[in-house]
Amino acid sequence: MEMVNMHEKQLFMDGKKFVAVISEAGSAGVSLQADRRALNQVRRVHLTLELPWSADRAIQQFGRTHRSNQTSAPEYRLLFTDLGGERRFASIVAKRLESLGALTQGDRRAGPSLSAYNYDSGYGKRALMLMYRGILEQESLPVVPPGCSSEKPDTIDDFIMKAKAALVSVGIVRDTVLGNGKEYGKFSGRIVDSDMHDVGRFLNRLLGLPPEIQNRLFELFVSILDLLIQNARREGHFDSGIVDMKANTVELKEKPKTVHVDKMSGASTVLFTFIMDRGVTWELASTLLEEQKNSGYDNSNDGFFESKREWMGKRHFLLAFEGSTSGMFKIFRPAVGEALREMPLQELKSKYRRISSPEKAHKGWEAEYETSSSQCMHGPKCKLGGFCTVGRRLQEVNVLGGLILPVWGTIEKALSKQARQSHKRIRVVRIETTTDNQRIVGLLIPNAAVKSVLQDLEWVQEIDD
Question: Which family, according to the similarity comment (predicted)?
Answer without folding.
Answer: Belongs to the SBNO family.
